[in-house]
Write a structure and sequence with these properties.
Blueprint (H helix, E strand, L loop, with lengths): L5 E5 L4 E5 L6 E2 L1 H4 L16 H18 L12
Antiparallel strand pairs: 1-2, 2-3
The structure holds zinc ion.
Amino acid sequence: MTGKTVFYNNEELSTRRLRCWKCQELLTPADIETYLVCPYCNAQLERCADTEDFAIEPLVQQWISRYPAMQPDNRGRA
Ligand SMILES: [Zn+2]
């Protein structure tokens, strides 16, 4: 059984967190990148485009940082 996946935007850190549907812990992409399983309670997270995008987001950001021309208007810096 899996529950609804909920994402939270953390404006201060410019990062997203995923809230575990079972134990309510806030997870980072590194927590779930391999298996989409909560490291706190071993709950299987919903596998969908959103969770997979979330899990690989650091890799995408790393890739973008190597190619400044691809950055969308240097957003996130007020
Ligand atoms: Zn959990």
